[in-house]
Amino acid sequence: MEPIKGRVYKFGDDINTDVIYPGKYLSITTDREEMAKHCFETVYPAFLKDARPGDIIVAGRNFGCGSSREQAATCLRYFGIAGVVAESFARIFYRNAINLGLPVLVAPGITRVVQHGDTIVIDLEKGSVTHTRTGTTTESSRLPDFVLGILQDGGLIAHLRRSLSRGGEQGVE
Amino acid sequence: MTIAEKILARAASRTSVKPGEVVTAKIDVAMSHENADVVLRAFREIGLDKVWDPERIVILFDHRIPAESEKTAITHQRIRNFVAEQGIEHFYDLKEGICHQVLPESGLSRPGEVMVGTDSHTTTHGAFGTFATGIGATEMAGVWATGELWFTVPASMRINVTGAFRKCVSAKDLILKVIGMLGAAGADYRSVEFRGTTITSMTIASRMVLTNLSMEMGAKVAFCIPDDKTIAYVRERTREEFTVLLPDGDAVYADEIEVDVSDLASMVACPHSVDNVKPVSEVAGARIDQALIGSCTNGRLEDLAIAAEVLYGKRVAAGVRLLVIPASRRVYLEAVQKGYVEVFLRAGGLVLNPGCGPCLGAHQGLLAPGEVCISTTNRNFKGRMGSPESSVYLASPATVACSAIAGAITEPAPGSGQ
Ligand code: SF4
Questions:
Q1: Which of B355, B110, B97, B338 is nearest to B237 (CA)?
Q2: What is the pTM of this model?
């Protein structure tokens, strides 16, 4: 996968999925573009004004904790967020993001070296995050190959479509 | 091996597994609620006609029932059509109650099995020795297609609990205390095993409070080790065969924690995070507008029994709205038969239909800016129950009932009816 370059939109620790995607919009189940209009709407309304497609979210510990609502990953992906780099992720959000084709990277220490508005490059295959202004590189966990495969195909659905059409193979490991 | 390792080894047809390994496990039960609508759209996109096994898929409605909007009504309708088309038998529509109560009641939460649900509190079913965890909707579509899912084998954490609870103190106070100690990410990706004499003497319903709230410290799965009580509960409700898997004596734990509950006081999680835990006495006197007893955490018969005991012959304070939501139709029926519902109504409470109600802020009983609710539910995130300027305190049924009478946060004490 090509490295991804983008502007940083920064958040703190324990950003939960109610904050990312408010419960009052859960009745939106199919319209992804509509979901994208409500990212962070109630608690961080500035996001919808200031963030741009192509931005990369950098966050602290436990990003995406709380409810399993997939809309939290969907709204970011369809808003155009290019990836999320965090000190750590809550596990359901992490899996949802991969399944929807939204790149996620665990990069311990990232919040200390990267500021809001900086530009970074994330390299999923190497497992690294590079700060373009200072040139510093932060190592991140590298995703297992079959997980990278899901991202490469653009998410689990496309991945399953491909692998099932190759004949019976489950494509999840 | 720990209990999580044993179950994953069985489900992956392996003799043993180790933490950190990635395995593909066969799924025994796959549960969805209203978000089955998101799942079925993703399932259609895969391009298959039939789900892998209609007998292993469970669908019910609990989050927004009865439909609060035309949009939800259409969602329900689309799912009903899908259920009919696929021949999914375990479909409970909107009459049964909250998934994490209905599945155990229906004998679908069984020891030794792997359950996935498109709901984060699926960890609840670990109270029956089930490897049960929440997944997203797209991932569920993959399960509907293949019957399998990949898991990283989690490292395990053992929480050994000893001592007897003081009167008025219960499982809710224990788990809030533990979450306060460990933090919202304190058990991230872990399999948590609750062990010890306090756990073995607990009711099944109380054990479910522990595994339910373990999600709020990041646990991937949580367990109470199955014993005679568990087996009796499950056998009464299903004719399906199941194999009880127990942790080995030489199992390896990444963390071990000891908790003695003898001196434990009533606890409360203060706004706006579940790990912001304090003894109730520290926030006693704080004004409330709403008191809520219900949810997949504390909406079971024993919870309603405690609340009824406190509220018997009393009145809810003027200006306070008491909402009671039995977790399921069966719980509701028993609460009617035992006279609890009458107690709530005479006290000035409102008894709603079984379901999630205001817990997730989708409909029913939401909060206005500046309002405060004390609730037996499991999340108090900003804006979770309505306005982002409202606040939610999480506490035990005894604390919530006592607070409803007083009109302010109140520590339940022997003699307060409890
Ligand atoms: S009661 Fe609340 S926490 Fe439980 S399943 Fe319903 S919305 Fe989720």
A1: B110
A2: 0.91
- Report yes or no: A102 and A94 within 8 Å, Cβ to Cβ: no
Do A153 and A120 share a structural domain?
Answer: no
Which residues form ligand 1's pocket by a CB distance below 6 Å? B 63, 98, 100, 119, 121, 295-296, 356, 359-360, 377-378
At residue B21 the predicted structure's pLDDT band, cuts being 50, 70 and 90, is confident
B391-394: strand order across its sheet: B277-279, B267-269, B391-394, B372-375, B290-294, B321-325, B350-351
Residues A83 and A117 in one domain: yes
Which domain range does residue A31 map to? 4-141
CATH of the domain at A69: 3.20.19.10
Is residue A131 located within the same domain as residue A170?
no
Cβ neighbours around B170 below 10 Å, total = 26
Clarify whether residues A22 and A65 are in a common domain: yes
Q: Which atom of ligand 1 is nearest to the CA of A67?
A: 8
User: How much is the ipTM here?
Assistant: 0.84
- Min Cα distance A141 → chain B (Å) is 13
Looking at the fold, whether A132 and A151 belong to one and the same domain comes out as no
Write out pLDDT tens, residues B348-403: 999 999 999 999 988 899 999 999 999 999 999 999 999 999 999 999 999 999 99
- Cβ-based neighbours of B379, under 8 Å, separated by 6 or more: A18, A66, A67, B216, B274, B359, B360, B392, B394
- Chain B residues closer than 8 Å to A28 by CB: 71
Inter-chain residue contact B139 with A96, CB threshold 8 Å: yes
Q: What is the mean pLDDT of chain B?
A: 96
Residue A173: pLDDT over 50: no
Asked if A127 and A137 touch (Cβ cutoff 8 Å), the reply is no
Report how many Cβ contacts below 8 Å link chain A to chain B: 145
Same domain, A85 and A154: no
Q: Could you tell me if A111 and A171 lie in one domain?
A: no
Q: What domains are defined for chain B?
A: 3-243+252-259 (3.30.499.10), 267-416 (3.30.499.10)
